Amino acid sequence: MKYLISYSLFFIYLSLSASESLTYTIVDTAQTTAFDTRRSINQTSPGDRYYGQDANYLGNAPSYRDNGDGTISDQVTGLMWIQDPGEKKTFAEAVKGADKCRVGGYDDWRLPTIKELYSLIQFSGTDPDPRSSDTSALIPFINKVFAFEYGDPAKNERVIDSQFASSTQYVSTTMQGNETMFGVNFADGRIKGYPIETRRGEGRFYVLYVRENPDYGVNRFEDNGDGTVTDHATGLTWTKADSGEGMDWPSALEYAEELEFAGQDDWRLPNAKELQSILDYSRSPDTTDSAAIDPIFDATMIRNEGGDKDYAFYWTGTSHKSGRGAAAAVEICFGRALGFMKSRQSGEYQLLDVHGAGAQRSSPKVGDASKYPHGRGPQGDVIRIENLVRCVRGGDVYPAE
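-> structure tokens emitted (401 positions)
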């Protein structure tokens, strides 16, 4: 009965929202395959153990138009993009290059914000093994209408070195005081804070300039007074508070699907792009003593692995597929994106904010976090597994059949 009622409420919502101008329409992640904690499975049904994940809900399907002049129009967001990022640029070159860009005959190109850039990500991609140089079986995390290249080992790059620049700079610093820019890696499907410059020189990034819809990525939150918050820019309604305690990914799916709150029972675990939409990149634990989220929301404070006051990672319903399967799911870091970095001098591990509050990473769906005492990956990403949950409803989203 819950799902019949929820489905009817969806169509009522569509009729009500038709008159509301959405300036920040979320593009679906393009993840249509369902997964358990290791591999793909047949599509699940309400009440099944893994029901409620990304593939069980359909949203605004990605839709791009090649304009034939070097530009691509996103027919969901209203944004227009250059098609080919060209050669990698430093951050300074990327900023200056927008004013000089004349692709398609337009002169109003801008360097995208991290929310604009993230609108392009598609989680039909495959996370490469960073130690491999074989890209033949890989699928990038961006639509094939865009020109894309993996990192070139002949240039001393890793396969995953396909980071794209945004205009969004971290309000704090990463590593050991590095000024940092948030970027999207369309090779491995993540948002990370990338140092603008290190001792080895300036970082270099691909650039996709954007134009039109300057309101994209700007939230319009309203506290509904019943423990929920509506974003009138996206059409999504959120729980004002989070789960208050961590849980593994299957439990997060169950928690969201069973939630009855504020008179509604059609809550779900948000997909990666929905949850990223409520990040506030003007805030961080170091600069505002808060999570990277608008203060209209409540965010549970935690003690991180170093014993410091911090804020949690949050689960999404989106699996993060690699060549080894789908044992990981996407998480959004509303607190410091910590990692254990090994000192070259002392050989000891240092716990650092390696990717910034506002990063998007991935974590094992189940397991024992104590088995990762120094994290995982090149920057020793902290693994918690028991992440927090913030539920969502509404939007142009409906259950997949």
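The CA atoms of residues 303 and 309 lie 5 Å apart.
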